[in-house]
Amino acid sequence: MADTVEVVEVTPLGRTRRRYSAEFKRDLVEQALRPDVSLAAVALANGINTNLLARWRSQYLGPTAGDIRSTALIPVQIVDEAASAVTVPAPIGTTATGELELRHGAAVLLIRGVPEQSVLATVLREVLRTPGAQ
Question: What biological processes does GO assign it (predicted)?
């Protein structure tokens, strides 16, 4: 673990503000990015606020990492019956094979053919995130 180089700044109201070295920040962020370690655990072990570490992580990953505005949204229409599913032809150069039916609460999602991977991932993530979609 990198040693912290800490500079304490006194503000006009008598409050102190700590400044951490870039190496210290990078070391903590890289620890927090490991899949087996939680952000809160790294922050707690190093005596900093979890929100501060989350801000450093966002800065480390770049401006679009985790930015919901970077996700393309697609129109979705919820219908009462699965029988009214719309068949969309497969993109040119692909073979329309297979069928996927997902039931989540009262919602039924039926996909035939070969959907675009990013669109399918977005739809599945949104449908499964909604508890008992209705």
Answer: DNA transposition
**Could you tell me which of 133, 92, 73, 122 has the C-alpha nearest to residue 111?**
122
Closest by CA position to 31, among listed 19, 14, 21, 44 = 44
Tokens of 50: 């979890």
DSSP secondary structure of 61-129: H-TTTT-GGGSPP------S-GGGPPP-PPPTTS----EEEEEETTEEEEEES---HHHHHHHHHHHHH
Res. 80 pLDDT band, cuts 50 70 90: low
pTM of the model: 0.42
